[in-house]
User: Fold this.
Amino acid sequence: MLLETFPQGVTVQVDAPIDLPPVSGDVTQLHQVIMNLAVNARDAVGATGRVDVRLSEIAIPTGRGVQIEVEDNGCGMSPAVLDQMFDPFFTTKAVGHGTGLGLATVQSIVAAHGGVISVSSEVGRGSLFQVVLPASAAEGAPDPESSAVDLPNGARQTVLVVDDEEGILQLARKTLERHGYQVRVARHGGEAVDIYAQDPGAISVVITDISMPVMDGPTAIRLLRAIDPDVRIIASSGLEAVGAAAKAIGSGSVLFIPKPYSAEVLLRAVGRAIAE
Assistant:
């Protein structure tokens, strides 16, 4: 899903052997780790460049481990940025294009799984992120049939995705379209209200970011409610989850999902919103 959203000028190489030892962990959280690192690499290389994703087995002090490497030949980072990159709310992106929580979230997830993350980078020469996770004590690789996640599918319902981050829009679009939904997108709340007002009955669910330029999520939610009191709304934010969730629910959203979200989290939220 991630690779399909990369610009055509970016070369992507994935090396993922099928005989790696299993890792015990939360699928949704580990998806977030891969998603964050890959999106950061994509942003670093721009319209052209190279991104390599490599998985391998390595020896660690406690026994066997699995290493995930994401390397790019993009803009790289200065020593000053490297010193702060895992700090919450630190970002080098323009206002409105990043929350500064992505790498902080990655570091927290990796640590919770008993792993470590390291990075090496040089301005103009790209970056290499390395995540090492301990292998599970279980013998053998997991059975793909028994470990596969059964993701819910839609029935051609239309979902309106509202976000000022282009990467989030495209990831959500790809996921939803793959699973049977039609998708429309808006890049701020005002645009979302205009789209919804044209034909309220045509849109089954609205997924909106909380913090956006022009018109933020809570304002858009109130206006959507004024147009259609029964509109199904899922709010999302990469900001501090408790406060963002409270603001969204106070504005009238049905559900709240924190960013970055995995395909499973997104699809289950949309399915639940439609069912309710």
